[in-house]
Amino acid sequence: MKLTILRAIYFGNNVAVEGEIIETGDLHGRELIQKGYAIEVENGHAEEQQEQQEQQEQQEQQEQQISSSNCSAWQFYAVSRGANR
Questions:
Q1: Backbone angles phi, psi at 25, to 5 degrees
Q2: Closest Cα to residue 20, out of 52, 49, 47, 48?
Q3: Domain boundaries in the chain?
Q4: How far apart are CA 41 and CA 30, in angstroms?
Q5: Contact 26/39 with Cβ under 8 angstroms?
């Protein structure tokens, strides 16, 4: 059973913090859910959505860097050709 931690807990000789995804047995997972320490991840969709969101953010950052570098290159070209005189 995959769970997303809502409150920090001691799990497997480590502290699992809020937002972390852990995998545990059904009985232990239901107990954590009942106590309000975690919620169930539905078929791993949350991980996939998070990965897709991170990829989209990276692509947007790359596009912004490219567009800003293109603008700088164009400005350099215009200045070197004397367009600002």
A1: -70, 165
A2: 47
A3: 2-40
A4: 12
A5: no
